[in-house]
Design goal:
Elements lengths: L2 H10 L6 H9 L1 H4 L1 H14 L3 E6 L5 H9 L3 E7 L2 H10 L6 E5 L12 E7 L8 H11 E11 L8 H11 L1 H13 L4 H12 L8 E6 L2 E7 L3
Parallel strand pairs: 1-2, 1-4, 2-3, 4-5
Antiparallel strand pairs: 5-7, 6-7
Helix pairs in contact: 2-6, 4-5, 8-9
């Protein structure tokens, strides 16, 4: 087993990030991801004018709060299994009444069938213990014809020096310099998406109704519920 694979296996064991990890994440990773997540927030508000948004694995809340701030007509729920993550997110969301954070398992969402206008997740899917169940939960809660946008790491985004230079110019030195290594440990390779992840999706209610694309610093999986 390679060192990279060994580290990835260890990182995937905790589905909920414990308190020390949440504090570290809030002080470092969350800040690095702010610009890329700001773009996602803009894309979501352009796509969904009003309704209810779910942010799966919302961490310390930046994406959920930015969506809520941009559109008061949206109700945004951040879902996380880390108690400290939820606590920090609620503190960050003070004064943003349409952003709420819920301690819950994304494989068992506390929402009614056909009640959600868009599901989003950034950098969390590689932590999911039962991804098939999570995808089926997304399908269950989404309204007919609505989408889930799942973003996660993919090292092929940073495959050459030109890509890394562009990312550095756009999002800062750390993203360009460390993006390939971080997305290797916190995500999946393109081949894994096209084999393992695709095989899982083919066993869900989204079967045949999804697409994958490299976009910005992520790979984006777009899943659409049938009308």
């Amino acid at each position: 087993m390679s060192l990279t694979r060994f580290i990835k296996d260890i990182l995937r064991k905790p589905e909920a990030i414990p308190t020390p990890g949440a504090i570290f994440y809030n002080a470092t990773v969350a800040k690095v991801l702010r610009k890329p997540e700001t773009k996602i927030a803009d894309d979501i508000v352009a796509k969904v004018g009003n309704g209810t948004i779910l942010d799966l694995g919302s961490g310390t809340g930046y994406l959920s709060i930015e969506i809520a701030r941009r559109s008061p007509s949206l109700q945004v729920y951040g879902i996380d299994l880390g108690k400290q993550m939820v606590k920090i997110a609620r503190r960050h969301a003070k004064g943003v009444d349409n952003a709420r954070f819920v301690f819950a398992n994304v494989a068992n969402l506390p929402f009614k069938d056909n009640s959600i206008d868009l599901v989003v997740s950034t950098g969390a899917s590689h932590h999911w213990k039962t991804p098939r169940m999570v995808f089926d939960e997304c399908y269950r809660v989404l309204k007919s014809g609505r989408e889930a946008w799942i973003y996660d790491g993919c090292p092929e985004v940073f495959k050459n020096r030109t890509d890394r230079t562009k990312m550095s110019e756009k999002y800062g030195f750390l993203v360009g310099r460390l993006g390939h290594r971080v997305s290797t440990l916190h995500g999946f390779s393109w081949i894994e998406y096209q084999t393992v992840i695709k095989n899982i999706l083919e066993q869900t209610a989204f079967k045949g109704n999804y697409r994958m694309a490299l976009t910005d610093i992520w790979i984006k999986i777009t899943l659409k519920k049938r009308k």
